[in-house]
Design a protein that fits this description.
The complex is a heterodimer of chains A (158) and B (281).
Chain A (H helix, E strand, L loop, with lengths): L1 H14 L3 E2 L1 H6 L6 E8 L1 H5 L9 E10 L5 H12 L3 E4 L6 E5 L2 E2 L8 E6 L18 E7 L14
Parallel strand pairs in A: 2-8
Antiparallel strand pairs in A: 2-3, 4-5, 5-6, 7-8
Chain B lengths: L2 H4 L2 H18 L2 H18 L2 H25 L6 E5 L2 E4 H27 L2 H8 L4 H30 L6 H29 L17 H19 L3 E3 L5 E4 L2 H31 L1
Antiparallel strand pairs in B: 1-2, 3-4
Helix pairs in contact in B: 2-5, 2-9, 3-5, 3-10, 4-5, 6-7, 7-8, 9-10
Classes of the chains: A alpha+beta (158), B mainly alpha (281).
Chain lengths: 158, 281
């Protein structure tokens, strides 16, 4: 009985995972009726001392498709998939957090570094999976080395 | 025949300390492989082979577990193997996990050797004067687990023989609580008797049979210089996004090899000498 429960839960766990090969994953194009423009930029990391990064524009005004009700995270995921860009996140739901994009991670450029985003020129103070997108929104993912001060979003504290 | 034990405790303690320090903090596959090999050969000479291979299986399981787990949680790395739920599983994360696993198994096997060489007499000799209560606690803790298992076996067998018809888990818990009571009682007795004999009082000396001679000094100098060379001449790796060798330093690698193989060589030399002198008789 114990073994059966263990076996069934293992099967359940495995069936909830979808395993895809590299080609399969990148061949599916993201779909959606609405579009947004997304850019990913890390010029602060290029300027950072001893930085090996030369290319500041990871994504430059890419038109990404999304569906109604999708969030900034979905747009980033679709854009990264279309352009074969690496990214890593942690958590889920409203508290989802982007750790790194294109091998550039938080804390790579000092202890105050990480990714922030702005939509239509404003930095929303919610997680990227809590911000619902509208058609034609302009999303920018910016890398900061100083808690947002170097990209125009100074951290004011609690 | 246990010649590494004949070395002065302070010297062999430094040897273990340096090796385990480098294994934990270097995060370097070359050092880890050398360190593991040294420990494996050393443990073959001082432990019995059955115990070594038994612990090898345990270490393999831990190693495999860590190696497989890391890529599931870390998605950094350029060489993609496949995707699980939109997350890439990469070769670099797998290598990183393997290095992590090797660190853990290396520390386990070196601590096994450390335990074999360092009995409570040595520990109390080394730390008894500086931290009397800490040394006692450490030596009691090291002794605790084997003693606990032994007395559990005794009590469990006794309750079986006495006709305890309680089954499986119930008898286990019964014996377990008896062993806990027993070990607490013996801890109180030990501390009382230590106190009665004046342990940790000022001016009290220990009997010991360790002498610091020229050979110990030579070994100590070798260990310290090898450690310093290791720290200065680093071999550096970068794991993400591509696994690359940043700088390789043969001097550092050789000195770490000296450091981690010396216990085995000392042990082997003594063994050969022993066999040779037996054959002469």
């Amino acid at each position: 009985m114990k073994k059966l429960i263990l076996f069934l839960s293992l099967i359940l766990l495995l069936s909830s995972c979808s395993v895809k090969s590299v080609d399969d994953y990148y061949n599916e194009k993201s779909s959606g009726k609405l579009t947004a423009v997304i850019s990913v930029n890390c010029k602060t990391a290029v300027k950072y001392k001893n930085s090996k990064r030369k290319n500041a524009d990871i994504l430059n005004s890419y038109k990404v498709n999304f569906n109604k009700g999708d969030t900034v995270f979905t747009a980033l995921k679709n854009a990264c998939k279309d352009n074969k860009i690496q990214f890593e996140y942690t958590g889920s739901g409203d508290s989802l957090y982007i750790e790194g994009i294109d091998y550039l991670y938080e804390f790579d450029c000092g202890e105050h570094s990480g990714w922030e985003y702005r939509v239509n020129g404003k930095f929303p103070s919610v997680g990227c999976n809590a911000y619902k997108l509208n058609n034609g929104d302009k999303i920018e993912w910016l890398y900061t080395c100083d808690l947002g001060a170097d990209i125009g979003n100074r951290y004011k504290g609690e | 025949m246990n010649s590494f034990k004949n070395i002065h405790p302070a010297v062999s303690f430094f040897c273990f300390f340096f090796i385990i320090f480098i294994i934990i903090f270097s995060f370097n596959p070359i050092y880890l492989i050398i360190g593991y090999l040294g420990a494996f050969l050393f443990s073959l000479t001082i432990l019995d082979k059955k115990a070594v291979f038994k612990s090898l299986i345990f270490q393999l399981i831990i190693f495999a577990l860590i190696t497989v787990t890391n890529p599931l949680f870390s998605h950094n790395g350029a060489t993609i193997l496949f995707f699980i739920n939109d997350n890439r599983i990469t070769l670099e994360a797998l290598i990183y996990g393997a290095v992590l696993g090797f660190t853990v198994t290396g520390v386990i096997i070196w601590f096994k050797c450390f335990n074999m060489v360092f009995d409570s007499e040595r520990l109390i000799y080394l730390f008894g004067k500086i931290f009397p209560s800490l040394a006692l606690v450490i030596s009691m803790t090291l002794r605790f687990i084997p003693g606990f298992i032994r007395s559990f076996r005794q009590i469990n067998t006794a309750s079986k023989i006495n006709g305890s018809y309680r089954l499986g888990m119930k008898r286990f818990l019964n014996s377990f609580s008896a062993v806990i009571t027993d070990s607490m009682e013996s801890a109180i007795i030990t501390s009382d008797s230590m106190k009665a004999r004046g342990y940790g009082l000022k001016g009290r000396t220990f009997y010991h049979r360790f002498k610091f001679n020229l050979r110990d000094l030579v070994y100590l100098l070798i260990f310290i210089s090898a450690f310093i060379i290791c720290v200065l001449f680093k071999t550096e790796f970068e794991f993400y996004p591509n696994f690359t060798l940043n700088s390789i330093n043969v001097i550092g690698i050789i000195s770490f090899a000296v450091l981690s193989f010396l216990p085995f060589i000392i042990e082997l030399k003594e063994g050969v000498k022993w066999k040779y002198s037996i054959s002469k008789i």
